[in-house]
Amino acid sequence: MSLTDLLFGRPLRSSEEGGERLGPSAGISVFGLDALSSAAYGPEAALTLLIPLGAAGIAYLIPITGSIIILLAIVYFSYRQTIEAYPTGGGSYTVASKNLGAFPGLLAAAALMIDYVLTAAVGISAGVGALVSAVPSLQPHTLLMCLVILLLMTILNLRGVRETGAVFIFPTYLFVGSLLITLALGLVKSLAAGGHPVPVIAPPTLHLPTAALGAWLLLKAFSSGCTAMTGVEAVSNGVRAFREPAVKSAQRTLTAVIAILIVLLAGIAFLVRAYHIGATNPGEAGYQSVLSQLIAAVAGKGAFYYITIGSILLVLALSANTAFADFPRLCRAVAEDGYLPHGFASLGRRLVYSQGVYILAALCAVLLILFGGITDRLIPLYAVGAFLAFTLSQAGMVAHWRRKGGTRSRRSMFINGVGSLATAATVIVVTIAKFADGAWVTTLLIPAMVIVMISVRRHYDHVEGEISNPIPLDLTNLRAPLVVVPILDWNKIAQKALRFALNLSAEVQALHILCEKDAGDFCKTWNRFVKEPAERAGLAVPHLVVLKSPYRFVISPIVDYVLELERNNPDRQIAVLIPELVERRWSHYFLHNQRAEWLRALLLLKGNQQIIVIVVPWHLTA
Amino acid sequence: MSLTDLLFGRPLRSSEEGGERLGPSAGISVFGLDALSSAAYGPEAALTLLIPLGAAGIAYLIPITGSIIILLAIVYFSYRQTIEAYPTGGGSYTVASKNLGAFPGLLAAAALMIDYVLTAAVGISAGVGALVSAVPSLQPHTLLMCLVILLLMTILNLRGVRETGAVFIFPTYLFVGSLLITLALGLVKSLAAGGHPVPVIAPPTLHLPTAALGAWLLLKAFSSGCTAMTGVEAVSNGVRAFREPAVKSAQRTLTAVIAILIVLLAGIAFLVRAYHIGATNPGEAGYQSVLSQLIAAVAGKGAFYYITIGSILLVLALSANTAFADFPRLCRAVAEDGYLPHGFASLGRRLVYSQGVYILAALCAVLLILFGGITDRLIPLYAVGAFLAFTLSQAGMVAHWRRKGGTRSRRSMFINGVGSLATAATVIVVTIAKFADGAWVTTLLIPAMVIVMISVRRHYDHVEGEISNPIPLDLTNLRAPLVVVPILDWNKIAQKALRFALNLSAEVQALHILCEKDAGDFCKTWNRFVKEPAERAGLAVPHLVVLKSPYRFVISPIVDYVLELERNNPDRQIAVLIPELVERRWSHYFLHNQRAEWLRALLLLKGNQQIIVIVVPWHLTA
Questions:
Q1: B466 Cβ under 8 Å from any chain A Cβ
Q2: What is the dotted CATH code of the domain comprising A3-462?
Q3: Which of A413, A538, A608, B456 has its CA 20 to 30 A from that of A230?
Q4: Whole-complex ipTM
Q5: Which residues in chain A touch residue B544, judged by CB atoms under 8 angstroms apart?
Q6: pLDDT at B72 exceeding the cut of 80
């Protein structure tokens, strides 16, 4: 068993793809983790902005969560329809490009790609950050731990989607289960106490109000709360990864994810108000997350508290995996349309779009290294991309239904139309509210990426036009090439090259580069070892050309000579035969000059359609 | 003018070598800087070990310096003779290997190489260290400054030996001149005061004795003082760099360097005693170098003090340059005997042995980075290598004179015999005295390097035996090869490759790798575009082979097929024709898969003497 097999598993046949597919339960842990984990930070993000309102601010979480749930429901119906309409997957990109045109599609793709890279980096650093606050002695190794987790996640995802699902199921259900128990317990206690339950452990008292209520403040709180909606896109991108009936499986997964997310958001909003829990400032002493306060208030700080908090941290870290599951699929869809390098569309040895995984891992590593493993400042960049993608996806569905026609379509069109307006309004609100915090980066990055993708496509179109050949093989003017053989010395390598050259053509030129002064010596050798035997055998005698090289360069005189030969023989092909010593051991690399490699590379780069390079290897036995 | 020309100067013709040579005055600054600068740390190193003896210890510097001067004189006569006997340069390595055999030669070479790398790293970091103690705010940039100086020094040395000499002359003479003035002034004052001069600024009072005199202590002090002798080897290595008459020029340079060094050492020893100057502990507060105390005592802390101290620091930093001048020459000599890769023996564009410069710069950078730019701890590793080289060189000269015979030779043999015994004794003393401080590293590294060099030579000998061909060109059994053309799709690239294949041989096989299921499609295309036209033209029809690839690999099925074809046709050459798309812009690299490159590399690596690789490039116009 090779190391590769051990790390990544044996290669899978194309025909084994069916076995690699997921059911809804594993689907939730692969594609739903990102969406579900946002329940842990969305409400908190909104409450943090309400801090200046003091105790009065808490009440506003309910209308804000309400709006978010409505948006979520609209987006849910939209994506449910998308999955049915586009069973090969692709999400916003596919829907927007098929219905609205290439440009909106690329906008959606760019927005989502940025989001996924951010998700991966932020998820990993959030998990490590939580571990570090539990075990402060690990703090100096933050970046190293982030990179190790990134590496493990990359390897896991290269092993294939099924293995990933199997690993992630347990933490996902632990997270959902323990949070639901908390919410149910809290609800029962609240109802029993007539809406005013007594907390087991009282949350910190709230600050006095420092600001008056304003529309701008509420808008910013809503914008921040919207991060709770990121990751909803993932399932519709991954329909192809589900077991047959894939559409039904994917829809069930989406329904389950959204339903759980709505219950979590609603429950949190209700209990936060019932227990008077507000956000605390992350920078200040005594900081405690909203969920931590909530669980402690409902159930106290026993084993249950620690299990729940642990599962939240684990799921936050693992939410990075949604990006790994989805980013490569998105890239594949874009690459199949020619807007990204073809490599993104080829299945790797484990039926994974490996190149996408590599790129995501690389970009994520860059972010982690740039920010030293602490990526909190990236969170504001999130929501813009997600909502831009939602908007374009739903606008695309509107165009889809309009084209389809019929009563049912009209109703669907209405839902998607409302949805796209709502999410478009949200994009504007979120962009404005977060512009100074970093959303400006996203607004610059998205068009830049679109330009790159368009130029990739242009290049491919150009190449396609240049090489396409709709006519049969041209068999006129077949003629043996002029062969040039650079020879530095008379030895077996030179003999092998010359013999091969004589096999190919009657017109062979041997090229000798002279750095020192002894011109006569090589000519003597040549006459004795080559010219005379060839004459005796009655063969066409190879022509010896001796070039002086006053600057001791060896490669460039050869290249110059070949280019001149080509100019003087515009109707001939010039085959340059390069004898190359092949080392069996890497350690021998430095013992021989790499002139053959350089010469080959330079001839290909500086050459043209007439010049062909022939490598005649000499294999060392030692 | 290209960037390369601007940085490194225009290329020099081989015939311009004469103009690049040095006279004695520039020779001192290129090859003597290392030796001369050791006057700045040798006496200090000895005095530091005498600190425990208190004021009584200072007196012992005179016998220690006396022994060092005697050693120096012996080594001088030896190298003077060596220069005459070996006018092509090479120093210890050449002398030892020509007279004592390859193994002692390699021992000397390894010892010197280690010394030069250490000299370069320690010199640069000493210079930067001095600058940092003058301008403490630069301290965080220590490593960066070291690397920048290393880079500048590398570029300067790649520009050629003459330019280096020109740049270094001024600081060298400033250093020598100001130190000689100090010594002369001190001597006059001492004599005028009857041996007890009054210092202008009194040196710090000395500690009371904390240890009694012992032989071991004196031995250690002597060993440390011996660092004053490093760098003496350089001139004899560089004879080739001198202007004709080269031997005379080199001898004059050596005489000047040694004479100045002896005067400096003797003068320092005398004045240190006259002014009661002892070393201070570098780690402790109030540290002041011996030379600084001496200059202040003789001349006060005026402008002269600062000029002299400045020139000392500059020369220490520039002494690294001796390594750059000599290491490449040493490597050249070893490479010409086949013990190092041939590349070390080829002259670069500016008539410098560029590869040696690169390697020295790289090793030096590694040391600087490993030690963060503070390489004090490397100083103990120095002297072992230098004295081992001295010993082997003189032992070699003994053998040389014995072979030559005659009265004059007998006298020379006696001098060198005494010298080699004295330096051999010093090697043993230095190794034992400094073993725990780091000399053990040198004693491990030297044999390891010798083993590597011997195995390099063995490899070359083996290759030479394998490829040498003392017989004329064999012209029997010339036969066109079997040609294999991998074709993924029918386009102009495939057409060009097929046309070239038909030029070469009547036996052409086209290889199509099938990853998806549609086997029939390509066969149809093939029949229509290739088979039928070839049949109509009455040509041998290329044979189509379709290989299925269930794991979606493209390259390995081709390689496997070619290897099998080779096994089935043991008497034929197999030419694999690889169509390759050549991108003109680097940014297009990622847009096309690099399969052609991989296939070529794998075929060369896994292939054998029968397999030839032909690259048919397709040049994109965009």
A1: yes
A2: 1.20.1740.10
A3: A413
A4: 0.73
A5: none
A6: yes
